[in-house]
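Hello K.,

You asked for the raw outputs rather than the summary table, so here they are, unedited. I folded two proteins back to back in the same session to keep the settings identical. This is the first:
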Amino acid sequence: MSNTILFILLGFSVAFAIATTIIGILAHRRLGTIERNISYQYNLIVKIQSILKSKSATNAVAEHAEMIYQDLLQNLIPILAALDIMPRNTSEHPLWRTLGGLLDEYTKNPFVMEQLRRAIKLDAGVKRNVSNYMNRAENLLDHLNTTEPDGILTTTFINGLLGQSLTFFTQAYQLATTTDEGDK
């Protein structure tokens, strides 16, 4: 009888050990699933946070666009006055009308590049305004490039009037400064 009781106790002990092991294995699997889900949620939150920061930065640029445009325009007005070029007569923002007028005139008369080169070379105010415009336009494009992951807005600005004018001013500025160095 004592052997029977021992075998019954041993059977219960083995069953209890097997049940405990199975419960431990199932708990470990559940913890692994929970860990993967938490990791996925964390990565998703990081992505959402990144997107929100990017949108926030893009919205900040949009909110401050008028100030940025006015700053660029303030540098363009003396340049166009020195070249005696009028802005476009459209309903666009004054910055885009001014840039459009300059580039329209350049399309009609390529001598505008030479006029700008001379103005940069001979007038320190024009040279400073061209340099300021180029720096601020490049800063705007760099800022858009870093804050907008898609690059759609940056590409639009580069392919539009801002990018074309930046290329135009850069060429004229380089011609004026290389001529200055050649004269020395």
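The second followed immediately with the same parameters:
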Amino acid sequence: MMRTMAALAVLALCAAGQDQLTVLEATIVYPEGRRGSALPYREAYREARARVRRATGALPPQEVTIELVEDPDALSAAAQARGGSPLPDWVAGVALPAHRLIIIRLDLRSPSPVRVEGLLAHELCHVVAHHVVSGPDATPIPRWLDEGLAQLAEGRVFSPETPNLARRAFFGQLLDLSDLESSFPQTEGASALAYAQAESFVGWLAKIGPPQVRMPRLLAALREGHTVKRAFRDTFMQSLSELETDWRIGLRKDHSWMPSAIGQLLLGVLVAIAVVLGASRIVVRRRALQAQWEEEQTEVEEEGLGGKEAHVETHPRPRPSGPPLRIRRARRDEEPPTV
């Protein structure tokens, strides 16, 4: 409750100084004094709208609002004020389809026209898809399908560091689509893999048949209340599990990642060999130095002992002069010697 009240307070302060632009059915709201930052979004809206139509077969509803905010804190506060959840710092934009609202940060690392157009198409696709699949009997769009369509409209993968799906498929490291039906992981790395899989699978589905026919039919089936499994079977004449299996098989057949992986492996082996050789040379040199030191110590000790013996020999004890002294027993008829 306190968090929601704080978010509303921040939103009220931001709304006090806002200006706006209009383009077709959309209104772009931006902080006061940031008109120059808002103009690229007005210029990109028409192309973003066309991309969304190619991906979903539908146009945006009336009264779409694009709200531009300063930074991650303002983005999270604006989303929470409308009932959304707190957002990680790496999120650049968010769509709230129930409010026909898109919120985007202005402090993007790369605010180039291509990035602005792609991000706007991504978030606008969420609004359009949920508007199409709406109604009391509608089946909620699976999260992976929702994000896959948005990626298809955006025309770029989620991250430049997107994991290599073919390699992951080869080693059985892909996520199951059933685990991505209602939510995506919250960490940036795991979320990147989920977005990459969604984009890859939906892009693969689009290649099976014209997306202008297949995707509108699929979304219409969900709007009519068909289950996800039935909607896919009616649209693609195959079950969702069969489609997912075929997609995984196609990824495993892609061996384009192997030369790079083998090169990295060989480089790692060479580095390991160099480290081992370098360590062995250090050990050998250390042992040689130790042996040399011990040999020198032995020589010093031997020289020390030799010096002591020479000193004794060069200074012998003086001997008395004259004939040698002899001791014998005195005879009985002899006088005792005088002292």
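Residues 274 and 290 are 24 Å apart (CA to CA).

Happy to rerun anything if the numbers look odd on your end.

Regards,
P.
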